[in-house]
Known about the structure:
The chain is α+β, with helices and mostly antiparallel strands. Helix content is 31%, strand content 33%. The chain has a single domain, classed as Alpha-Beta Plaits. α1 packs antiparallel against α3. It is globular, with a radius of gyration of 15 Å. This is Antibiotic biosynthesis monooxygenase.
Amino acid sequence: MYSSTFIFAKGHFDEAFHRLDQEIAAMARAIPGYLGEETWENTQTGLVSNVYYWESLEALQQLVQHPLHREAKASQASWLAGYQVVISQVLRTYGDSKISPLLPAALSA
């Protein structure tokens, strides 16, 4: 399993941003191999982190190569005050079972 983490500083979000953001999210969820997502915001730094989980790198590449994603990447400077992407391989997940699992049980330790 892989995760793609999109970390960004908020800029000016207009109607075009919100439309494209919703379309990309819907498209990502429809890709075979999409496993889930979560969003975090650090109120001290103002950074937002969107984490998507993928069954394979091939599934992640479908998102990266999609025309909507390319459109957003080309326009990001008009909406964001900076960004970084982190692609990671997830080796395992575990916890105390007090929260619902975010990822497939097959990776649990």
